[in-house]
Write a structure and sequence with these properties.
- The protein has 10 helices and 13 strands.
- The chain has helices at residues 10-19, 35-40, 52-58, 82-103, 136-156, 178-187, 207-219, 236-245, 273-279, 286-298; strands at 2-3, 25-27, 43-45, 64-67, 106-112, 160-165, 167-169, 192-194, 201-202, 204-206, 224-228, 234-235, 254-256.
- Helix 1 crosses helix 7, helix 4 (82-103) packs parallel to helix 5 (136-156) and helix 6 (178-187) packs parallel to helix 8 (236-245).
- Helix 1 (10-19) links the parallel strand 1 (2-3) and strand 2.
- 45% of the residues are buried.
- The chain is globular and about 55 Å long.
- With 302 residues, the chain is of the alpha/beta class.
- A 7-stranded parallel sheet has the order 3-2-1-4-5-6-11, with helices on both faces.
- It starts with a strand and ends with a helix.
- The protein has a domain at 167-206 and 231-269 and 284-302: UDP-galactose 4-epimerase, domain 1, CATH 3.90.25.
């Protein structure tokens, strides 16, 4: 079972499952899923997550759940939709945990590295957790979901892995995201506008690499928490410059806007040694990922 099977990451996981010859039950919110998903999946469903019996019935015959369903608010910070963040990212996750534990089903939870306390140094899975206030509702709700997963693992014997994913990018991502906006501007030859002096940084990780690790975790892996990122942190300015570089011949240029108010904190680079040792997989560097992103756009991929 893949929850969020029509979403940015979930759709890649579902496609990877199908490529491996696995039967896939996709859980979706949309009434009109992509055609390929509707054709290829063993089944598609919109579960009533409040109905424990329906949840457990849906898990009959399921070996593993990749829980990729999530709500990313259109506005971050305390001005955004706090209730919806916790309804989807925490309460729903807790219900998935309960159903998987009762059914003896393995669970792979896509958590978020936004939960880490801002740090100038790369962070291990044991680093302090305290979300940056600018993403507090989303990051806190994802972290609360992770705590419920760990609770199920430790108290109920649930076979569960949590993947703390960095700033995921690639074709099909939200057009609101910085990477998508930069790519669209560079492709159109418009200025790539960088805010906050270009200093905030993230560990940007290509979506196909996240899906590959989620698929590997679905097959094997010791229970626990794993960082999933590129292992390097890049500032917004460095990101914008890289985007322009992967658009040869563009008339686009980077324009940096000054910091307005208090400078935003940066997200740390993720130490991914634990995931590499477990599955032998390593994420692509930023330039390689951006080139693949551009090729997919030019080729009409999604």
């Amino acid at each position: 079972m893949v929850t969020g099977a029509a979403g940015f990451i979930g759709s890649r996981v579902a496609a990877g499952c199908l490529e491996r010859g696995w039967e896939v039950l996709g859980v979706i919110r949309e009434s009109s899923p992509p055609d390929w998903l509707a054709r290829a999946c063993t089944g598609l469903t919109r579960l009533d997550w409040d109905d424990d019996l329906a949840m457990r019935s849906a898990l009959v015959g399921v070996d593993v759940v990749v829980h990729a369903a999530a709500f990313v608010p259109p506005v971050h910070g305390l001005a955004g939709p706090i209730r919806r963040c916790f309804e989807v990212n925490t309460v729903l996750t807790g219900q998935v945990v309960r159903a998987c534990a009762a059914s003896g089903v393995r669970l792979i939870y896509l958590s978020s590295a936004a939960a880490y306390k801002p740090s100038a140094e790369p962070v291990l899975e044991t680093a302090p957790l305290y979300p940056d206030p600018r993403v507090a509702p989303y990051a806190a709700s994802k972290l609360a979901g992770e705590i419920l997963v760990e609770g199920g693992r430790q108290a109920l014997g649930l076979a569960a892995l949590s993947l703390r994913v960095g700033s995921c990018y690639g074709p099909g991502m939200s057009p609101r995201a910085a990477v998508a906006r930069f790519m669209e501007a560079a492709a159109a030859g418009r200025p790539v506008e960088v805010w906050d002096g270009g200093t905030p940084s993230c560990d940007y990780v290509f979506v196909e690499d996240v899906a590959a690790i989620a698929l590997a975790a679905a097959e094997s892996g010791r229970p626990g928490i794993y960082n999933v990122g590129s292992g390097a942190s890049h500032s917004l300015l460095a990101l914008a410059e890289a985007v322009v570089q992967v658009h040869p011949g563009t008339s686009s240029r980077v324009e940096v806007r000054p910091v307005a108010g208090v400078p935003r904190a940066s997200f740390p680079a993720l130490v991914t040694r634990k995931a590499r040792q477990e599955w032998g997989l390593e994420a692509r560097d930023l330039m390689t990922g951006l080139r693949l992103y551009r090729e997919a756009i030019v080729g009409g991929g999604s």
